[in-house]
Amino acid sequence: MKAFVFISFISLILSVQSSAQTCLSGDCSSGFGKFKYENGDIYEGEFYDDKREGFGVYTWKTGEKFIGESLANTFSGFGVMEFKDGTKYIGDFKNGEFDGEGEKTYTNGTKQTGIFEKGKYLGKISYYGKAVGTTGCLNGDCEGGYGMKYYSGNDRYFGYFKTGKRDGYGAYYWDDGTRWVGQFEQNLLTGYGTYFFITGEKYVGYFIDSKRNGWGINYDPNTGVKKIGFWSDNNLITPKSTLVKTGGATGCISGDCKNGYGKYVYNNGYYEGYFKNGYRNGQGKYYFDIGDFYSGNFDDNKFNGKGTYYYTNGERYTGEWKDQRTHGKGELVQFDGTLKVGYWKEGTYQDKTTPPPGYDAWVRNNYQTGTGSGTIAANNKLPTTTNTNNKPAVTNPTNTKPNTTGTTTTGTNKPSGNNTNPTNNNKPTNNTANNNIVTTGSNTSGLVTTNFKRKMALIIGNQSYQYTTALKNPKNDARSMAQVLRSCGFEVIEVIDGSASQMKTAIRDFGAKIIGADVALFYYSGHGMQVDNFNYIIPVDFRLQTKADIKEDCPNINWVLNRMENAATKLNIVILDACRNNPFDRGSFGEDDANEGLASITPPDNTVISFATDPGSVASDGVAGTNGLYTGSLIKYIASPNMQLENVFKLTGREVREKSSGKQKPWLNTNFYDIFYFKMQ
Predict the structure, then answer these.
(1) Taking CA atoms, which of 160, 199, 595, 631 is between 20 and 30 Å from 334?
(2) Contact residues for 555 (Cβ-Cβ < 8 A; gap 6+)
């Protein structure tokens, strides 16, 4: 009873407005500030429209403390409540009360773990009608699809699986209250998402191999202070405040922010992408200072076309946008890990099968015309969706300029603190860049090619093997490939005779560096093997003893593909001159386990994969001191100006096939439909 009375007291306090009281520092209207109330309570955190909205720390004069999310002056979302007598609650809040999943620990050590509603404990969680504590896959496909799995130790996961591992987007709940809602790769936290610590600390941004890497925001649980910028191995290495060297806190920090590709720092966020007339136009990524993140197409500063929006509470919408609202076909991964798939109409979810009126014509006009950027005229309306679960529904970020037409709809549990969308006030102005080059002739009528400016490559050449047959030319192949790519404007990471640790480190570094790039290219020359239909590239220090050694010690090509896909680059190219014969003794795994050549790979979106020869076949290493047959031809065509990507590989394949008298047939698989030139004149 004591706890329930206190929660009601909290709700009463939080109904008090902040007007006519004292802002000690910062922006206590729509920003980040520290505010002292007339009764002596102090709040430090995010504000919007003169209310506490977003992440912050509320400390009562009497000694109690709340760390977490608020909405309209009321605790809503994930948070930690510390009572004066030592009682502690970690979990979901709604309307200022414990509501949702959580854990309450009393001073005598007694714990209540499970579901709460309006401050009352209802009991432990039972999933899908199974007995409490039932382990294993409780729903869906936990091998290669979307499912829910309950682990020993009471950890739970809702999300995507690949080969039985957490891979893709999902929500993981640890038994102690810690949560991650975001991207996984091979069971590791890799990609964009939100991590809630049991201390109340919160990080929203990129993880690579379960460490903070890339752009991110970390909230201090003691003060509410945010650390914003680029992270490396859990350390903030480049704060946002240091990105703009001269001229104040905002501005263009690199590239062409008027008519081309550039990077621009705003008061409320950071943008990497294309500009037209000084407006965000074309493909880009906007990182809001509140933790929200959008990656997709822009038109006149607004979300239009296809894109993905990551909410700071961990939810994610992937699909179509119109007039800065979810509109068309999409998928929403909700805060509790459940999926909502179907059609949206101007920010409101319809159902699984009913498209909005005029949808087919809208798609034809904006995605299939082959002209312009494939976007729609925008206005100042907001990205919104409708929440239908029992979690708190909150509003989405709003523009600093009020919308004079239309209305916004309910959001998706997203705390809306310092959540103003970028406006024109600080943006550079000028005329458009040539974001799109319309090609002519040679069967390219109606096609559009994007201006791919930032290009990154990882080149690995393994030749001097310690425990198996050495090869003749991978060092030459790798060095030649690195040289020609540098001449084409690529930034290159080069690894020669890489050990297992060196190769894995290089792949991780590559995955972090290509975030924000336009093109990512991975090239490997050396021994390769397929085991259980997966392809592995062999380090020079690898020594085969068991089948498990291959899977544990040798990088899997899927690792590279996953990192490329997570980086959301416009074009990914994978080149494998590794289809040589199995270098180890046959029979080690059984007759069918170690096949010649490499296995076929289905490319993800915007990905081109090229093998030196067709799947299951063996490629030539060439004459010592030169280049391998395949790479020797490939670098010649890459260096040829004004040659489209597909023609580079087609001509390489034809030449290799002719020179080998038909014995070696390079193989290409593509899921890329734009136009790209390695070199233009």
Answers:
(1) 199
(2) 500, 503, 504, 507, 536, 537, 539
Q: Residue 150 belongs to what H/E stretch? A: strand 146-150
Share of the chain above pLDDT 70, in %: 78
pLDDT band at 586 (very low <50, low <70, confident <90, very high): very low
Q: Distance between CA 249 and CA 255 in Å, rounded? A: 17
The pLDDT of residue 430 is above 70? no
Q: 150-239 is classed in which CATH architecture?
A: Single Sheet (2.20)
DSSP, collapsed to helix, strand or coil, labels residue 141 as: coil
DSSP state of 80: E
The Cα–Cα gap between 397 and 417 comes to: 8
Q: Which CATH architecture has domain 2-121?
A: Single Sheet (2.20)
Q: What is the pTM of this model?
A: 0.53
419, 226 contact by CB (below 8 A): no
Residue 461, H or E segment: strand 455-461
Residues facing 514 on adjacent strands: none
With 70 as the cut, is the pLDDT of residue 403 above it?
no
The one-letter code for the residue type at 596 is: E
CA gap 642, 308 in Å, rounded: 33
Write the pLDDT tens digit of every residue in 633-661. 999 999 988 888 989 999 999 898 888 88
Q: Domain limits of the chain?
A: 2-121, 150-239, 249-437, 452-670
What type of residue is 181?
A: V
What single DSSP character describes residue 240? Answer: G
452-670: CATH topology is Rossmann fold (3.40.50)
Query: 584 is written with which tokens?
Result: 């180890």
Helix (H, G, I), strand (E, B) or coil at 492: strand
For 55, phi then psi, to 5°, come to: -85, 145
